[in-house]
Amino acid sequence: MPIATTTTINRNPTLADVVQRLGKNNETVEIVEALNLTNEMLEDMTWVEANNKFTHTTTIRTGLPSVTWRKLNYGVQPSKSTTATVSDTCGMLEAFATVDKKLVEISGNKESWRMTEEAPFLEAMNQTLQRAALYGDSSKDPEQIMGFAPRFNTLSDKTANHVNIIDAGGTGSDLTSIWLIGWGPTTVHMIYPEGSSAGISKEDLGEEPAYDEKGGEYRVLKTHYSWDCGLTVRDWRYVVRIANISKAALHAVPPDENTGESHNLIDLMIKAVELVPSLSGARFAFYAGRDIRTYLRLQQKNTRNVSLTLNEASGKNVLSFDGIPIRRVDALTFGEKQVK
Q: Residue 67 above 70 pLDDT?
């Protein structure tokens, strides 16, 4: 009698997990590996197949039901949670990569060398996705996905999720944010079209003519890359935005150790962690721009703050806060408008 075997299913799959589970070819795996090199968010993002072709419809909980301590011989009033149905659509991110045919022919390993030459196009797609996931607004640009910033864009109590926006106190337009996100199938996740190869495709279009600035013709090899994806926020409580961080108020040491005004990034991040319902059941990470990460590392170096640690993982240094990794996201730059 054969021994039964079980297959472990990743309940919180990254893009690499999805591609591996779908059993896609090495070419797709290589693309995902190349994308991971220049997009630290991909290490955390959960990916879920859309439930309606290009659109993912989900029920978002906006309130919890009431419960009652019941006395003997007394009933309990019925109640129910409040929900809202939201549909998120995949955007279509595309690029055409061209490489001089002669250069490919004289290279030692044609396919490997060609992939290396096309890497900048993948990086450009990566950066575009990063920025769209943060700032994309499909209400203004229908071809884009709806990112985090338009969903968490006001301190007004007219929106339920305003409680998960922390005001750092900066004013003007030279501002940025730190995000704390808990990725998971029931919290926050990316989506890819139903029945697709995780939304990623590559097509070799073969040879075609190209022309230099003087009109001279030469031959190029052309490749079409496509990445169809979107973003769904099922439970806004697992997203915290630390907004209105001013570049002028950043210092290498916390404010209690210098004489000037400074953001206390440590205190702000503690508040962010305490806002989420639970650190279990989701894959959490902080996301900050290059400058913010630099100042956090300087604060970690110049103080004895045990909340910030710098350890090696998978061959690279990972800055963490209370055990939560702090990822560098270059799309998060100064230039945000003040969140009011």
A: no
